Amino acid sequence: MSKGKKILIGILVIILLVLFFLPGIIKDYAINNSKELIGRKIDIKELHYNYLSSTAKVYNFKMLEENNQDEFIKFDTLIVNLEPYKLLFNETVIEQFYIDGLTVNTTLKDSVFNFDDLIAFHTQENDTVTTEESETVKYDISNIELKNANFFFNNKNVDHTTHIDDFSIFMDNISWNKEEKSNADIKFNFKNGGYLETSLNINPADGDYDAQVTINNLILDPFYKYALEYADINSLKGILNSKILIEGNTNNPINTLVSGKVNIDDFALTDKNNKEVIKSKKISSALKLIDYANATYELDSLTLSTPYIYFEMDSITNNLVKLFKVDTEDNTLANEEYKTQIDTTATGLHYTINNFIVKDGIMDYRNNLTGKNFDYHLNDIKINSDKIDSQADWVNINANMLLNNRGNLDAKLGYNPQNLDNLNLGISIEKFQLSDINIYSQYYMGHSVLVGDFYYYSTSKLTNANLISENQLLVKNPKVKNEKNGLYSLPLKFALFILKDKNNEVRLEVPVRGNLNNPEINIGKIVWTTLKNRITGTAASPVTTLSTLVDVNPKDYEELVFKYTDTIPDENNIKKLHKLLEIETLKKGLKIELAHFVDTDLQRDAIVFSELGKKYFQEKNKNYLEDQTGFQNYINTKVAIDSLSVKEKAYTLINSKTADSLVNIYNKTLEKNITTALTTAKDSTNITVKSLDIKQTENVNSAPRFKINFDLLEE
């Protein structure tokens, strides 16, 4: 063999040996200098390179955390198939890029991620600054595949780790000058079941992309700890399913458009007592368009199936405020700021719900405003609406529900989305059981409602915040009993008795007026005050209502008025007594009392002059009332003492003892004759005449009168 051939063979052997050992040398160099090369320590078990196919293979790669102990990234296999000759044309071509068994551990503590040091390492400024414009990077990568990947995100702020299991992705090709969109299919499983699958199509040339994202059976429980930042809950449950289409451009991501469907099954939130507060059998939404850049949010439909809410209120706050950590003062300021923003900067917001439906809703309500728990159950709640559009002139929403499994409530709300100071509200409540609110009746009004059906019809119109509300209340067959005095001690029992018509029904009209922009206007207070005044007014002046039974003027039936010397009722008072008997007949159970009042001193004077007037008539044949001068001369002649007044002279002729006796006789006779007039007109009556009590202060300066008092007969 010639010397030249030997040299050539030797060189070839050396080259082969170098090529054979080069991967190992590169591996050892990379491991030993990884800190300086990439900022972290790494380990590689095997590195192989096929020079014929230009394929590099890495096995059991591992990158450690900054502490050089914990694993940050590892994978089982990496295969990269290159076309090196393309580098001569300034183009990177990879025929295969394959990773199997990738595991990435990410942690967050406070605001620091465990890869922040890597970002800092790779973003350090170069020692020299390149001023030349960089050329376009040419690339062509095919058969991109990631299999059996696992991603762990440990959020130490909430002490929770999220695990994405069995993550896989495949892209057939991505190229710098490809006109068609490249396709990337991604799929991974959730640790607790379900999976996420996407199909991404992207055009590298212009950046246009679309992605179909499918989430199947994502269990919400693992997100419970994230929700704790916003809600004081004990658990978060539900299963999320969605199919979303995302379309946009990588060069202008803010203009991304989103559409699709999102459903949540068996959603539930529990409070710290492990009581379910909010839940729904199914929440379904069809997203027609979400266009963040143009502030447009359009839903084809939003449906809540069998939603449930538990609402508990006390004198200070309610359970939902506590649950969602709402600070009342901060929230008030936030609302004011929000309103300002809405008025000045958010006029472009456009939202639409083409079809909003609530089916078979349930609400449990509790409060302890009276010191005792009041529980109320609303069920079979149904809500539907026509198109809810923020730019519409008018929107209508209808709702109906059962009240404690018996009563019915129907509501119709119409409003102007562009001006909430304009709306119409119609409410109809039928067959509501009054016994349901015994706790309030007893506490506020001093009565317990035993039985009775309540009907309520309300029509309210709000125009530029000015409220005009007409409210009709109907109570059928009410029956109440007295309890201890309530907070307001309203005479409810008597008022209801008076207000009941011949059909044993109570009808009330409660108008409400006010401007809602006035902070002193409280609608609930207005309604309560109006109703309270109606009840107290009826009890204080029952004659106003009772007079309508016999079609008389109520003012004429506040009292019967007589003259000081009357002993029998005149024709006018007889008619009034007959009307009172009619009222008694029409209003079974009504107690009527005629209370006698008179100033006996004034009456005594009148009777003394009347008795002397009789003698004057016998002697002079003249009426003393018509001949005042002659009558005074008559008395002066009888008692010729100039120092005495006419009245003193009269009492000389009829002494005080006799006068007092006459007063008593006159009053007793009048009381007896009134009773006789009643019993003559009606065989049996409960109308009573209360005898004069001279100690009553109402007697002072009073003409003879019988005050008409109404009350309930003793049961």
Automatic annotation (TrEMBL):
Transmembrane parts of this sequence: 7-26
Domain of life of the native organism: Bacteria
Assigned GO CC terms: plasma membrane
Annotated GO biological process: regulation of protein targeting to membrane
Pfam families: DUF748
InterPro entries: AsmA-related (IPR052894), DUF748 (IPR008023)
Keyword tags: Membrane, Transmembrane, Transmembrane helix
Protein name per UniProt: Uncharacterized protein
Organism: Mesonia phycicola
Upper classification of the organism: Bacteria, Pseudomonadati, Bacteroidota, Flavobacteriia, Flavobacteriales
